Amino acid sequence: MDISHFVTLSSDENAHEVFRWVDTLISNLKKFIDGTYHGREENKQSYLEEFAYRFNRRGMGNRLVERLLNTCAFAKPLNVMGTA
C-alpha cells in the first residue's frame, strides 16, 4: 500500500508551541475515552462533547458550584402538573 503524505512547514516561530498544545489536547482526549469508557466506539460524539465541556470548565474550580446554585436560584419553576 503506497500512501503519500504532504508536509507543510510553518514560518511562524511559535508553531512548535501551538502544535504541542494540540498534541497534548488529543492525548488527553484519548486518555479520557480509554480511561472512562474503556475505548468504546459507540457514542463517540457524546464522549467528545463531554470532554469539550470538561475541558472548557477546567479552570473554574469552586466557581462552577457557585454558578450552578445561582442558576438554580434564578430559574423559573417548571409547570409539571399542567396548571398555571
Describe the structure.
- It contains three helices and no strands.
- It is mainly α and 84 residues long.
- It has one domain (15-74).
- It is elongated and about 65 Å long.
- The termini are far apart.
- The model has no long low-confidence stretch (mean pLDDT 83).
The percentage of residues in β strands lies in: under 5%
Question: What distance separates the N and C termini?
Answer: 68 Å
The helix count comes to: 3
Largest sheet: none
Rg over CA atoms, rounded to whole Å, is 21 Å
Any low-confidence stretches, pLDDT <50, length ≥5? none
Series of H and E elements: HHH
Total E-strand runs: 0
Judged by helices, strands and strand pairing, the structural class is: mainly alpha
Backbone shape? elongated
Number of structural units classed as domains: 1
Q: Look at the structure and give the mean pLDDT.
A: 83
- How much helical structure, as a percent, in the residues? 55-70%
Give a nutshell description of this structure:
The chain has helices at residues 15-37, 44-56, 63-74. The chain is mainly α and 84 residues long.
Provide the descriptors you would attach to this structure in a database record.
single chain; 84 residues; mainly alpha
Question: What is the fold's blueprint, element by element?
Answer:
Elements: H1 15-37, H2 44-56, H3 63-74
